[in-house]
Amino acid sequence: MPLLVMKFGGTSVANLDRIRRAAKRVGVEVAKGYDVIVIVSAMSGKTNELVGWVNETSPLYDAREYDAVVSSGENVTAGLMALTLQEMDVPARSWQGWQVPLKTTSAHSQARIEEIGTDNINAKFGEGMRVAVVAGFQGISPEGRITTLGRGGSDTTAVAFAAAFGAERCDIYTDVDGVYTTDPRICDKARKLDKIAFEEMLELASLGAKVLQTRSVELAMRYKVKLRVLSSFEEQSDEAGTLVCDEEEIMESNVVNGVAYSRDEAKLTCLSVADRPGIAATIFGCLSDAGVNVDMIVQNISEDGRTDMTFSCPTDQVKRAEVALNGFKEKGELNYAELVADTTVAKISVVGIGMRSQSGVAAKMFKVLSDEGINIKVITTSEIKISVLVDRKYMELAVQALHDAFDLDKAS
Ligand code: ADP
Ligand code: ASP
Ligand code: MG
After folding, report:
1. Residue 234: pLDDT band by 50, 70, 90 thresholds?
2. Whether 170 contacts 178, CB under 8 Å
3. H or E stretch including 8?
4. pLDDT value at position 87?
5. Alpha carbon of 178 to ligand 2 centroid (Å)
6. In sequence order, which ranges of 43-153 are alpha helices (DSSP H)?
7. C-alpha torsion angle, residues 96, 102, 107, 110 (rounded to 10)
8. Stated pTM of the model
9. Do you find a cis peptide bond into 101, omega within 30 degrees of 0?
C-alpha cells in the first residue's frame, strides 16, 4: 500500500481535543488507502517543562539522564494518539524509538540518526495495522541508552522515516500554514511561500527559523523526500502549505528570500589572550570537549602580543563555556585577563540564493540597521547569507526593517 508520513508538532497535539482533530486527518488519509506513519511531538510546553526540571535538579547535567527525562513527553502523546485512532476504529499502535528501532549515535541531547529498522513496523503493517504512531525526537544509542535528537528533532524523525520507508510524502503539520519570508509572529507583513528551495530552507532553519529542524531539511535534500509544511488548524487541500523542493522547481526568486532570527544567543570574550600559534585551537578545543556549540568567531587585532577572542554560543551553554575555560585557566593551559559574557544579544540573518550573483546585499543590510540606530556587534557571511549580532531589544525592529527594505512582502 502507498505510505504517508504525517508529523504533528506540539501545538497540534496540545490537548485531547487537538489530538482528536489530528487523528481525524490521519483517518482521512487511511480512508484514501494509505498506510500512515504518524510522528508525534510532546504536547506543547511539555518539553520545556521537562528541560526546566532537569536544569533545576542539575545545572551541569549528565546528558544521558537529560535524554531519559526529556524524551518522555513524546511517549505520552504517541500512546494517546494510538488510543484515539483505535477509538475511531483505525488499527493503530504506538512505537517508542527503541521499539522501532531508531538507532542513533551516542551524542546525547544532540544525537544523529544512524539507522531505522523497517522490519518490525512493516511486519505489523502486514498484519493489518494501518497507522504506526511513533514517538518523535528519540532513539537508542549503541550502548542501549535513550537518546534525543536536539530541540525540534521530531521533524528529523519524520523525514528520516519518510526516507527509510519510501513514503510518497512527508507532511509536517504545525501551527502556521507554511514557511514564510520571516516568522509571521513577529512580522505582520511576512508572506507565505508556496515553494522554498532546500538550500534556503536549510540556511533559514540553521539560523533560527524553527519551523523545521535543520537536520530534517538536510535529510530531505539528501534522500529526495517530498517535504511539505502545512497547518493542522485549517482545512487543507492537496496544494496547501509550502513545498520544500529543488531550486530548479522554483521559477521566480528574490535576491533575499527570508529573514531569520535567533533570540537565545550569547557573546563571550576572552580578554587579552596571548596572540600565538595554537591559541584558537586551545580555546575552541576546550569548548568543543565541553559540548559547547560555537557559532560566530572574531579575533581582534593584536596589541603588544595580546588579543581578544570573541565567540557566540546559545545562552543555555554559557555556564558550560565559563566552567570549561576557567578550568583551563586554572590548569595554566590558557591565560586571559577576563572572560566577559553578554547574554542579551540576538542574531539576525538575511538569506537568499540570489546573493550568489548579486553584490550590495551586505551594504544594504548594514545601512538599514544603521538608519534604525541599531549597532552591529559581530558579522559573519557565507555564500547565501549574512548574519549580525545585535542587542536583543532591537531584534524585532531589525527583522521588520530588513523585511521592508528587501521588499519581502512582495512576490518577485
Ligand atoms: P511545532 O511545535 O509544530 O514543531 P514549532 O514551534 O517548532 O512548531 O515551529 C513553528 C513556528 O516556527 C511558528 O509558530 C513560527 O512562529 C516559527 N517560525 C519561525 N520562522 C518561521 C518562518 N520563516 N515561517 C514559518 N514559521 C516560522
Ligand atoms: N518535543 C521536542 C521539542 O520540543 C521535539 C519536537 O517537538 O520536535 O524540542
Ligand atoms: Mg518544531
Report:
1. confident
2. no
3. strand 3-8
4. 98
5. 18
6. 46-57, 63-70, 72-87, 119-126
7. -70
8. 0.93
9. yes
Give the Å distance between the CA of 231 and the centre of ligand 2.
Answer: 17
Nearest ligand, measured from the Cα of 151: 2
Distance of CA 158 from the midpoint of ligand 3 (Å):
11
CB 258 within 8 A of CB 350: yes
pLDDT in tens, 137-171: 999 999 999 999 999 999 999 999 999 999 999 99
Q: Please enumerate in sequence order all residues whose Cβ is within 8 A of that of 356, keeping only pairs 6 or more positions apart, or say none.
A: 383, 384
- Report the nearest-CA residue for atom 6 of ligand 2: 152
| pLDDT value of residue 342 | 97
Look up residue 127 and give its three cell numbers.
498484519
Q: What is the pLDDT of residues 249-283, one digit of tens each?
A: 887 778 999 999 999 999 999 999 999 899 999 99
Closest atom, ligand 2, to C-alpha of 157: 8
pLDDT band at residue 236 under the 50/70/90 scheme: low
- Supply the residue whose CA is at minimum distance from atom 9 of ligand 2: 151
Residues in Cβ contact with 222 at an 8 Å cutoff, skipping those fewer than 6 apart: none
Q: Which residues surround ligand 3, an ion (CB under 5 A)?
A: 9, 152
Atom of ligand 2 nearest to the CA of 42: 1
Residue closest via CA to ligand 2's atom 5 equals: 152
